[in-house]
Request: fold
Amino acid sequence: MIPYGQQSISDEDIEAVVAVLRSDYLTQGPKVPLFEDAVATATDAQHAVALNSATSALHIACLALDLGSGDRLWTSPITFVASANCARYCGASVDFVDIDPKTYNMCAIALSEKLEQAEKTGTLPKVIVPVHLAGQSCDMRAISKLAKKYGIKVLEDASHAIGARYCDQPVGDCAYSDIAVFSFHPVKIVTTAEGGVATTNDAALARRMRYLRTHGVTRDQDLMLKDDGPWYYQQLELGYNYRMTELQAALGVTQMDRLDSFVSRRRALAKRYETLLSDLPLQRPYQDPETYSSFHLYIVRVASERHLDVFTSLREQEIGVNLHYIPVHLQPYYERMGFAPGNFPNAEQYYAEAISIPVYAGMSDAQQDEVVAKLTKALD
Reply:
């Protein structure tokens, strides 16, 4: 089976993790700050906060932005459910903005129209979560301009986009947002096994996220209301046990050393796909000229009437294709809130046609040729 994605683990990665196992610290040691520094440097962000998952990062980012009961969060329907669930964890309601049919990201035009109507009805969101699907940035300048106009916070779900660029600047620099979140799950570009990082240029947001990931507890002298002695700590608010371990961070540090090579290989594979798939009856992914995708995914679209047959044929031929994603508003949990088929037609049309075919740093040209040959057979 050739999977749609796969981690790349080197001897250096293994040695780094083993060294932690032999050290004095398995958690709350020196490796987490080193990993945070590596991500901050790669993204040109002033602060990076490491957590045990990107879902945890989205949750505490929402809390740091004061999202709560009675508030609203808007995101894309084409994303993993965590992009919406983070609002529900905070007691807020969720709505969606349809996708751009070319990029599959949140459509800035649809967002503008929806915000205009929401202002009239008093239902503006407090937070918008644009999702950089497959590693290609959303139109962040347009989204940021709208957010500023309506007084809305922007939280980038950049789970797919470490190493990507927008307007020749790293995704995650928060030039157009308050916070950006990355995922380091094994199928992502860089892995910590499980893990997430939130980047921001706001020191107060970074400080709050740091204590929210540790039960809401701090020893920061600038934050404590009193000090009974060197043992003293205070719980400032209800937080969570969302810390990243030293094992995860050690793996992340060595993985980040190869970020550029990982992204370069993915982009080379994407370029080969452009040529190899050019004569097949499918739609290849559009790339906005202002973006530099990290190609976490390579998504093709086939005619809806052939979608199931092509997907099934590839799986039967041991090509581990997948579908990213089922529109969130069509999940039973969200349908019970009133969402229904027809709400977001571009997202639903995308779902009827999309297939994620294999792309990962360790993929060989021969494996890619095999994918193309079997995709050609499935479409025949």
Q: What stands out?
A: The radius of gyration is 21 Å.
